[in-house]
Write a structure and sequence with these properties.
By secondary structure, the protein is of the alpha+beta class. It folds into two domains: 106 residues, no CATH class; 117 residues, Nucleotidyltransferase, domain 5 (2-Layer Sandwich). The chain is 29% helix and 19% strand. It is built from seven helices and ten strands. A hairpin with a 6-residue loop joins strand 3 and strand 4. Helix 4 crosses helix 5. The longest helix is centred in the middle third of the chain and has 15 residues.
């Protein structure tokens, strides 16, 4: 029997449990887009926001201003439920050989036109020409749920650190600054999980940029040029070192 890929450890059952409804998907998107909290342009500072009852948005506790996490993304103004968008992304991330709009239509129950649009939007982001990543390549990981004490310090929420008992969901992403972006749902950020993805997708001539998460420390040992930015200290750009391109492209499509 052929050895299973590490990616196969993240099962459909896990995915459906962790993204059970639109509210859960919206919360993940909010946390990804605003990891340091939502800046309210009315109040002029980061304020506490709560989910709105009648719309896919979050309301500022201080002034009532609404912020829409889907704005500026592929989900913006779409009538298709976020659960279907996320499931489509899951299917595409699990299949290197590609997946057809017809299959998305069969599995989700949407029209072919809707399935084709979702696939097309994600392909713009993920790019299905599997030439190795080269040049300047940024890498980053984002978390949904999980035990806060087990997360990298700059990924933890401000409150209740270390008290959560939820299972983590991790999205690992890479982007060429002048090219494509690729994301993977993975069960963890251990080296034996992520480094094979890097080795099979990134050319040794590439310059890799990451934050200072210790997980990335061994990249130079595997033959890559590697530079970091200490965003744990709220420093997000040091010369040419940053991961802002990947974060911006993922949410904007």
């Amino acid at each position: 029997m052929a050895k299973k890929s590490p990616m196969e450890k993240y099962t459909l059952k896990q995915f459906l449990a962790e993204f059970a409804d639109d509210a859960t998907c919206l919360e993940w998107l909010k946390n990804y887009r605003f990891p340091n909290g939502i800046f309210c342009k009315i109040c002029g500072r980061v304020t506490k926001h709560h989910p709105a009852n009648t719309r896919p948005s979050y309301t500022c506790q201080e002034c009532g201003h609404h912020v829409h996490p889907t704005a500026g993304t592929v989900f913006h103004k779409s009538s298709t439920p976020l659960t279907i968008w996320f499931y489509t992304a899951f299917l595409m991330s699990q299949t290197r050989g590609g997946i057809s709009a017809k299959q998305i239509q069969r599995e989700t129950g949407v029209t072919y036109k809707t399935a084709w649009r979702m696939c097309n939007e994600f392909r713009k982001m993920l790019t299905e020409d599997y030439d190795p990543f080269g040049g300047k390549v940024e890498m980053d990981e984002s978390y949904f749920g999980g035990e806060e004490k087990n997360k990298h310090a700059n990924k933890r929420t401000a409150n209740n650190r270390g008290r959560s008992t939820q299972t983590k969901t991790v999205v690992f992403g890479m982007v060429e600054r002048d090219g494509k972006v690729e994301t993977h749902f993975v069960p963890n950020v251990k080296r034996n999980m992520i480094y094979p993805i890097v080795a099979s997708n990134v050319d040794k001539s590439a310059q890799i940029y990451t934050d200072e998460f210790h997980f990335y420390d061994a990249l130079h040992v595997t033959g890559y040029a590697h530079a970091t930015v200490p965003d744990i200290e709220r420093i997000y750009v040091m010369g040419d070192a940053h991961t802002n391109t990947y974060r911006r492209l993922l949410v904007s499509g």
